[in-house]
Amino acid sequence: MGGGHPMHDHGAAGGGLPGAALSALVLVPAGAGYLLLARRAQRRNPALAWSGPRSASFLGGLALLALAMLPPLGPAARTDFRAHMAQHLLIGMYAPLALVLSAPVTLLLRNLPPVRARQVVAVVRSRCARVLTRPAVALALSTGSLPVLYFTPLYGVCMAHPAGHLLLHAHFLASGCLFAHALAGPDPAPRRPGVRARLVYLGAAVAVHALVAQAMYGGFFVDVHAPIDRVQQGAEIMYYGGDVAELLLAAALVATWRPERRTATATIRPRRLV
Fold it and tell me: How confident is the model at residue 128 (pLDDT cuts 50, 70, 90)?
């Protein structure tokens, strides 16, 4: 374990004023664009109003991203492993769930003309999309990448270069959205496994998170150059914060369960007349 070595500060990129300005330039237009599309969908079909909770979920996801990227957490994450872990949970677990539950693709489809909408649906149903949205693939890209990040020098490389730090954030967000979408997303997607199977994948994610956090706390295999006490506290943040996020994802997953209803006539066999 790389205990006793302080994390290095490589400037403000990704955390200071330039990083805050960049985050604002991305998050503010995203929120405004979503609200504009929701309003247009309402005007086009007043009988099929866009869900207010979905709009709130999208704005909540953006707020979580802002909390992770802007001061004080954003700059602190470059020098304090505890702040990095909190940032990781916000960008990679909490914000993706909120964004996915807002159904942005469905909202986009409601605003597009039929020809464009069919093109988007074709992308959603493409072979690449079918592969990426498989729960096993999404699990490997999200939770499965944690041992690679923290048990190899990759974490130090990412933190040493602003571009690497930015790419790490992009990976957390994209893989988190893929996993949340594969398990509980309301947007159109290739055929998903049943709820029970998806709960198994979620259980695997819980197990991997717990194992990585426990190994990190005990100092096994970990290649993080930070004071030991901060690494242990970061491991606790991963362990307990990850549990809460996965409970929320489980609730969203169970909420998608639509048991098949069998009619009474379907369960009654006709009697043979004698």
Answer: very high
